Structure formats: C-alpha cells, structure tokens
Amino acid sequence: MSWFRITLHRSAIGLPERTRGVLAALGLRRRSQVVFHPVxxxxxxxxxxxxxxxxxxxxxxxxxxxxxxxxxxxxxxxxLERRGxxxxxxxxxxxxxxxx
Amino acid sequence: MFGAFRxxxxxxxxxxxxxxxxxxxxxxxxxxxxxxxxxxxxxxVDAALAKQGETLKQLERWKAEMPTEAEMLPRDKYxxxxxxxxxxxxxxxxxxxxxxxxxxxxxxxx
Lengths: 100, 110
Prior knowledge:
The structure holds two protein chains of two kinds. Chain A is of the alpha+beta class. Chain A has helices spanning 17-26, 41-49, 65-72, and strands at 3-8, 34-38, 54-59.
C-alpha cells in the first residue's frame, strides 16, 4: 500500500469556500505542512480539487511528525568528538556522537 | 497644466490601476513553472492510481481535455479569451487569482 505525501505549497487565501473546505478535509492548515493519505480514488479526487495549491509525491509509508521535522532540520554544523581515554584513535574519524 | 494640477490620468480622479498589458518574461517563466507543477501533480496522482488499477472520472477528463504545458500554444499560455477586449484576447494576468487557477482552454476559433 502506498501513500500520497501532500505538501501545501500555495495558500488558499481568497479562494472559494469549497476549495478551503477541501484543504481542511485533507488536514492542511498552513503552507509547507505535510500530510499523508493512502492512495485511493477518494483522496485522489480531493487532490485534483486543489492541484494548483499542493505538491504531491507517492511514498511507500507515511512518516511520523518527528521524521518530517527531522527532514527539515539542517545539520548542526559541529560534531562532538570523544575526549581523552582512547588518545587520537577515539576521535580520529570525526565520529559523530549521537544526541547528547 | 503643469505641476501638481496637471491633467494626467492618475490625477484626474478615481482609481487607476496600472497593470501592464502583457507579462514580463520572468512572469512568463514563473507561469510556465506553475503550469508544469500542476502537470506534475496530475501525473503523480494518475501513476499512483494506475498502480492500484483504479481510475477517476475527473482525472480522465482532465487528461482528455487539458493540454499539458508543453502542448499549449504560447497564445493560450499567456493570454485568454475576453469578449470585450480588442481582438478578443487579454493577458492571462488579468484573471483574478491567475496564479492559483487553471485557465488553459479558450473557445475554438478565438
């Protein structure tokens, strides 16, 4: 089963109530928001109604909110290398120390 | 006749909107990109449904009737029919919300 990954790219300000209703039904509230819906004629019809406002991809599984956020978060720009004990070997590879 | 009381169109009262009669080449470029984005959405939805063996009346109708960006004539891309305009054509940017609506077809013969 595959999913639509729908991103609201253009705002619906000033567009008809029907159009904004479709966005609400898709669960899109703000620009750049991402929602996932299963591939089915029902959701395809809703996407067709707002095709000028959204970007759509087909993905294998829906991402969680944390995963979507992680995609957007840039690199931290620095790495913490292990200190001391192992001498030079410990930090030689510029090894990343996860989530301190 | 001169200075602050000269009779020019913007000063002789009322609201005068200065919308250029044609699009700049950068506007045309962004407009093409928007048309392509819509084509992409339709193609993605169509491919995803086709994989499941489903189809959609609305989608079939769009594919049958609407030209894609590459198939459209420049004249249909950047202008649209208007019965009140000289030579029955006006710039597509005169259409309200023109960046967020699909206006691709015009009456045959115009």
